[in-house]
Each structure stands twice: as structure tokens, then as C-alpha cells.
Structures
1.
Amino acid sequence: MVILAHPNFRSIILFFVVLLLCNLASSQPVGKFPDYKVRVKEPTICDGAVKQHSGYFDIDDKKHFFFWAFESRNKPLEDPVVLWLHGGPGCSALNALFFELGPCKVNKGGNSTSENSNSWNSNATIIFLDQPDDAGFSYGEGVSDTASAAFDIYVFTQIFFTQFSQYANLSFHIAGVSYGGHYIPTLASLIMKYNNDNSNAMKLTNINLKSILIGNGLVNPLLQFVHFPDMACPLLDPLSCNQMKNNTQQCSDLTQTCYNTKNAKDCVFAKTDCFNTLIEPIEDASLNILDLRQQCSGILCYPDFGDIAIYLSRDDVRNALGVDPSVAFQLCSININNNFIMSGDWMLPFDGFIPSLLNSNIRTLVYAGDKDYLCNWIGNKAWTKALVWSGSQGFNNANDSAWITNNGNHSGDVTTFGVLSFLRVFDAGHMVPHDKPAESLDFFNKWIFNKHL
């Protein structure tokens, strides 16, 4: 592609890596975190058969992070630990818990829950973290960029493994969706940095990071947004299709300017133009940009989210979870999203962190439902193929293989070389575990135990 041929592209990505790591390292001192407090309960709702932990880590008097953790249904003191980071930015991880991959689903009307037999805690302990602060049940002064958010998450992991030391030596994986494509590479790089730089004086817990999983992620807008017409044109008339293709070039030019100048105004301008010309035409057709097979209806285009909001507003549920009485639950925070947009963070690339992770043998799975428009599979595959790492040539020369799930179905295509895998999931939208629960559990269980997909 022409975009990949830009002479400054690799140097721009490298600049962002160095800049972000410097920001992460200098944002505040790490170590003992002397001001943190813990307010935790052991609820029995949702999945009473496993041990749970929920409540707050108060990092200081300005940051209060809510989480809900479920032990593995299998061997909790041996199975891996997975931290789930939701997207938005500003959407609660509890959306994923109840709508996608957690131990239970909220029933219609929001008055009760039912078991999810395809929960990802079948063979792993799962931590659902509301972040950045002010998302979901978390509260605080707020942040507006990925570097600050990732540092806060890193502090959370340090406190978690200190407070619950029984999990500290288990294999650790970071997973997430959508804007998680910003958070996950940044956090993983931060973990590796402090694991390598740790000293006795800092007294940090070494985090046993084994892999990252990015689902339908927003990772590199420049490489991803150019593929919107590939998804949209089959649904549009020829005139609208050609117009979108023409608009794609302007979106790319503006995004390149954002990358070059690193100026918030330029990045906001790029985001506004790209969305107005490449995403609004799909929304104007009342299509769900998270699943092109559906019309958009209900809260966040899915009526079930309304039931989740009702359930999490009940006093008995909030009391069981240890929710602060002053906090009102938000499915997604418009304020957080706007703050990240206005800082320019939304349109920046974060794939520059991934080569060093791959070269350090941190296994990386990028999976994508092929009916999502917003963070579509074609764009996600494009940025994985553009990565420059020790296995680049092998990955780009590798053939797609049929992904056969335990039920014997051809459920997708997978490309693997070394520690990098890209998985296209057939007939799934933005939130793959919701659309393909059994198939998602299949690849998740195989992945965290380092088995062939």
C-alpha cells in the first residue's frame, strides 16, 4: 500500500514508542505506593461456585479503581490470570462481563442473572477492571491519554498481586477489545520495562506476563481506516462507494499529519474528518457499525445493555460488590471519550510497542470478528502484517490455515508465525465472545495454554 511506503512511517512509530515510554516512566514514582488503600468484598452473586473479589483499590485520594475478579472454575491456584481491559475509551469492563465472556448473563428486565457456560473463567482467573478512573464504578480526577491510563493500570496490577499474592506467580495475560488496542500494548511494554529495570529498592512485584490478546482493536488508524471501503462498498451503491474511496485518501492525509506533528488539534481534525466521511454514512443507514448484519437499536445498538445498567443500579447488587454509595454506574462515559479525543490520543498509533514484545517472546494474538465495521478484520490484519520484528518475513509469508473448533466447524482462518497469530472469526461482530461464545472459549483456552489454534 502507498501508506506503508511513506518514508517517515517507521521513524514516526519509533518516536511514539520512545516518547510514550519516557512519559510512562516519569509520570510518577513507582514502588511501594504508600498511599493506597483496599476496600474489597467477596461477593457470591453471578457465580457462587467460585471465589470472587470485588471493590476498590484507592491508589491515592484522587484515583479509585473498581474491579471484579472471578477465580477459575478449574484450578484457581494453577490456572492463568487474565486482566480484561474494555474499550471506549471510557466503557465499563462489566459490559464485557455480562454481555460477552463473564460467568453470568443479565436476564431480560435486569432483575436476575443466569450462568454462562462459555465463560472465560472456565480455566482462568479473570479480572474485570473499570478504567480509566471515572469509567463504570471507578471514580477520580480522570486522565485523557493512554500513557497515563496505562500507568494507572500498572499500579493496579502491582497492588492486586500484593493483595492477592496467591496469584502472583501464575502466568499472566492481558486481553481486551477496541480501544484496548491502545491500552494493551502500552501496558505490556510498561510491565516489561519495570520487570527488567526492577531493583530491590523499588520492591516491585515481577509480573509473569506471557501474552496479550487484542480483539477487534483500534491500534493504528492510518493502516486501518483505509480499509473502510472494503467493508462498506458491498453495502453501498457505486456512487457512494466511489465517494467513500475518495474520502479515504483525505482521511489518510490528515491522519498522517497527526502522526507527523503530534499536535492535538491536527489529530482532532483527522478524527472528525475520518468519522464524518467514512463512518457516518454507515450510521446514517441505521446500520450497526459494530455488526454490519444488524440495524442499530437500543442502548449502544444492543438492547441488552439496558438490562445490564438496570441490574448494576440495584442496591442489593451494589452492596454485594462494595460499590461506593456516591457513584452512579455508567455503561460508557462520553466525558472520558471526549477527553481522549481532544488530547489527540484517539488517532495515535500504538503498534510500535508490539515488535519489542514479540522479540521478547510475549505471545500476541490479534483476533477479529469479520462483521465488525469500526475496527474491521481487514484493517487489523493489515497492521499485523506491517509490524517490523524478527519474524516479519515468516509471518507475511505464512499461509492462512483453517481454524477448526472443537465442534469440528471451520470457524475462521488463522495466520501464525512464531509468537504472533492473527485470527479472523467468521460471522462475528466487534464483540466476538457475544456472537460466538463457544468458539471464543475454544480459542481462548487454547491460547492461554499455548496450544495450536
2.
Amino acid sequence: MNTRAAKIVVLGSINMDLVIRCKHLSRPGETIIARSSDEVPGGKGANQAVAAARAGGDVTMIGRIGDDAFSNRLMDNLIREKVSVDTVIRTPETASGLAVVAVDDVGENSIMVVPGANAMLSVNDVHMFADQIGTADVMMVQLEVPHSTVLAAIEVARRAGVRVALDPAPMPACLGDGFLTVDVVCPNQTEAESIVGHAIETVEDAKRATAAMHRRGARNVILTLGGRGAVVSDGADFQWIDATPVTVVDTTAAGDAFAGALAVRLAEDADVFTAARFASVAGAIAATRLGAQPGLPTRPEIENLLNPQML
């Protein structure tokens, strides 16, 4: 039996999150008094790297930070989480990425991101780290860094025979087909509706949506639906996965927890349905905790909530 840890490469954003707790999210023109604020490491790329590491993966992060007051904290945090940072580039005279995350009393959030150094992650960087990408079992990408860089990374991974999992967030106005020619695409409901151009409310809507993404090149599609669960399709089989019932505190990192755990199980050669069930539990646990990376679950925590046959 192969006991080598699943090797995951994550190409994406590294941010500092300013998390603000408030009774409700402010409306346009409204000033509200928040309850608390905190600075915690974040960014979809870094969140997913930490999620994968906590789920048991051997993780390498490809990204950029600035040379500001946040940069050392961001780097130290990844190292503490056992994520390899040999391929994280410190960018002179540039601020690190910053996200302002407002979270209300029912766990809903509103997020604004200033990309900072993330916007400088380049195609040249991808080629510089092609060897690291080529040794991975799975590469994870998102859309908080330049899209040309993501497409270049997908192509490098494809040529090396490395499986690619795409979290298409934040969703652009038009997502080109090149982004969907991956092994797994994992949009939430809003993102999926943007990709396929129709509402997704019923099982039949979800089937139509996954079929459309298969036609555009996606080998497997996982459509996450929050508290309703997720639908998974490999092009031949279609399954609905019920959500794990939890008390929601903060949904900020639920999707990233899902993505990181999913990549680890796929790299361990689980089928996409088994991997999605594992990932669904990881996302549910993250939603019960405040903050992005602080709330990401460990492998034992995920397995404790799973049925033995789902492992």
C-alpha cells in the first residue's frame, strides 16, 4: 500500500483578511457599528493550501506576497501550517493582498479584495515553477490571480499529466472555455449560474448545468449549494450529496475547506463522489467557526463526522 502523502500544488492568492463582525451587513449608504475586528491570514489560494495540509496533503504554495508589514506574518503562517513556501515570491515595493470581510450574525459575509502582490503573479512565474507543478498529484487553482497566469498553469499541468481542480472564484463576467478543460470544476450556485446562464433551483436544473460544463470540457463537475448540499457528476453518473447539518457561524472559508479536502482525497485516488462527501464535511465544519484559516478542519476532525464507508 502506498503511504506517501498526497502531493498538492496550489497556485493562487495570499491575503491578509481584516474580519469585521457585525449584526447585519451594511446596505449602500449605511454606516453601522461593528462588534469586533481581527486580522487573520487568508486568500483563496492560501486558504486552500492550508485546508489541504490539514486534511493530510503534502502541499506547495505558488504565489506572491509584498514587502509590507503583513508579508512576514503571511509567510510564517504558511510555514507553521506545514505548507512549502519555496515557490512563494516576495515582491519588492508592493503591498500584500488585503481582503475586508464583513460577517453578520447568521454567518453570511461580504468580501472586498485589494489584490496587491497577487496581481503580479505571472506566466513567467508559472514556467519558473513548472517542475514543482509537474511533480504534483493534483494542482488547485482559483481566479484571484491574473487569469493568463491560471491558464498557463493549467496548460503546464496538462502537459505533465497532473490533474487540475478549478474553483472559479471570483467569477469573471465571462469564463472562457480554457478554464473548464480541467479534471474537476467546483463552482458554487451563483458561479454555476453565471457559467451556464440559467437559474439552478431543482435537480433537473443542476443536471442541465453539469451537462453544459461537461460539454465545455470539464471531466468532473461538483456544484456546491451551501446548506442544500452539493451535486456531483462525472459525465456518466449524477449524485446529490446532502449537507452535513451544522450551526453556521461564518461561511467565509467553507468553500476553501471543501476545495482543499477534495484535492487531497482525489490525490489519494478516491473517486469524485467519495472525495466530494469528504470535502462536504470539511466545508460544514469550517462554517461552524469564525475566520478563514483558523476555522479549517484537520483530517481527524473530518473523519470523525464521516460514515466509515465514505472514507
